[in-house]
Amino acid sequence: MKRFLPLVAFFFCLVANAGDKAKVVSVETESSQMVLYVHQNGEVSFYHYGAKFDDPDQILGYKSYRRADYGTEPPAYPARGGRHFNQSALAVRYADGAINTELFYAGHQVTPLSDDITRTVVNLEDPKTGMKVSLYYDAYFDEDVIVSHAEITNGGKKPVQLESYYSSGIVLDSPDYLLTHFYGAWAREMQVERELLTHGTKSVSSLKGVRTTHTENPSFMLSLGTRTFSEESGEVIAGALAWSGNYSIDFQMDETNRLSVISGVNPAGGAYMLDKGKTLHTPDMIYTYSSCGAGQASRNLHSWARNYCLYYSSSVAPSLLNNWEGTYFDFNEDILKKIIDDVASMGLEMFVLDDGWFGGTDYPRNNSDQGLGDWQIDPVKLPDGVSVIADYAHSKNLRFGIWIEPEMVSPRSHLAQDHPDWIVREDGREVTTIRNQWLLDLTNPDVQDFVFGVFDSTMQLADGIDYIKWDCNRHVESAGSSVLGNQGNFWFDYTQGLYSVYRRIREKYPDVIIQSCASGGGRVDYGALRYCNEAWTSDNTEALTRVFIQYGTNLIYPAMVCGSHVSAVPNHQTANITPLKFRFDVACSGRLGMELQPADMNDSEKAFARKAIESYKAYRDLVYYGDLYRLGSPYEDDSYALMYVNEDKTRAVVFAYTLKYMGRTQRPLFRLSGLDAEKNYRVTELNVEKSCFWGSGKTFSGSYLKNHGLNPNMEKLYSSAIFYLEAE
Ligand code: GLA
Question: Cα–Cα–Cα angle for 547, 300, 184, nearest 5°?
């Protein structure tokens, strides 16, 4: 019965047309509902997103008691013009200079796409200008996720300028709106900030084009009707835009106290020219609703991502060692082979060769000054090529991965000399460098071919390249393309160019694992993750900072996409010194890797690493596919823990950290979550001779662990523990 409507619709794709009667369009998941209201005059309002109410038609005849002649009914997709005074999702400038668009209902269809997914498309049209907008709402029933985007068609006779072309809007009505959003920079990604919204507009946005999630991430959580953030109670709406370019998510609380949230491509980059007859497909905006706190909102997003978004999420990315912090640019065949020996002996599963292997004879990549664009092997460092390294790794039963940065070019390279027209720039202006490099213009089909070619030829460097780390170490400045008529189209078309290259790559190389990296976590979004299996969460590998970065990242993105590496001390970014165990215990809560020179580790460190890696392999399915429960917050508590539980609640793993010395009298107490109260669990601390928990090895009921809790003796700063729980 739960999918009654979709099942009916399966046989009769529901089609409703414009008429003179008010009607309701209801988009439903297992426990959430979005309701649009078609007024008699054809205007379409947004009346509800939240918990489900039974019969949506009850809302027919709804009165807000606000003045009907004052423009206070919230449009489902606000267009500039007509009776509307809030920020516009769509703003069109017509060829004759006119600026108004008025959208009216022109029918809707409901079509089941699968047993889980139902698509609702609401068509809107401006009878005067011929502009058409189709609003898509894909409801993922089991995951409680609704994915929405707009398709904007210029049905007029002349090209138009789209001065705003957002993907989607929702309108909420609540006494309080507590916004959680994520700011960040290099080595400091996904930092959590919270604020109680007040009247006016707050935007979370980027104008950096590429490396777009350094500054802000295109995602948020809104706790409704409360001034405090809660993991386990209260209404929460979370959203994420699947887009790797300029974006803006605008929260506007107006005089009615309602909050309208519009999300999409950032209009500040310049107007998009849409030719007559053409349709612009805006990026997907992903929403979820939880009636029981932020934890459930994260779990909804994670399971949607695993089931429908992440590329090839059924394959497990192997544990690995990346040589970047171990060698930087300074390596040769012997150095790499020795590292590979250690990688194999510690039980890791892949070796990844980072930056520095290319540049050919003329611009060898010995530092970041040169070589990008010249993807020929450096004959001095690797006289026998990359294949000897890959073969050596394979001979040790390891997989092999390699780094590229194909969207970029160094001024000191043959590529820059041969193709100055491929560089993002505007004639007559200086082209700025960031990290001594320029950006290639992916709006240009020739550049798309080149970038695809870089990937393709890298894959031919050796037999069995299993993993590509795709980096991107600068953002856009002085945007300009030699092939575009309207430069305002640059931002949108660049990202579409990138996605079209990704698609070609995926057609030819469906199995290679791709990591989305951009100076660390500069491209962590659900747009890139449609094509990439995982992301490099941050260049900051220091474990204490990582607790915060990973906490923020995992509010929106699942742990399986978070590359998380153990590195040397003092840490190269923060200079902090933490115990090896703490570093492992933090890295093991994501996709485990190492990033150091193993020759610098002593025997006991290597022995510990071997043990930690072996135990990780036995529980990592929980990290990848389990449900995440956060036990508190590293921002608010001196100690913090998180846990992953499998679907039938028979296995779980808990990661616990002491982040601040608590004195002699205090100890952490973690009340576990997500377990079955009726089951009994054997609790075992991993990777230690002597456990910090008196009950390690004993069996406790789920209700004891939830209601009384687990009290490890984690007194010292950087104490940490991993507990494995198995139902008996
Ligand atoms: C970026 C990446 C690093 C490393 C370097 C190589 O900063 O984030 O992990 O690959 O580039 O230059």
Answer: 35
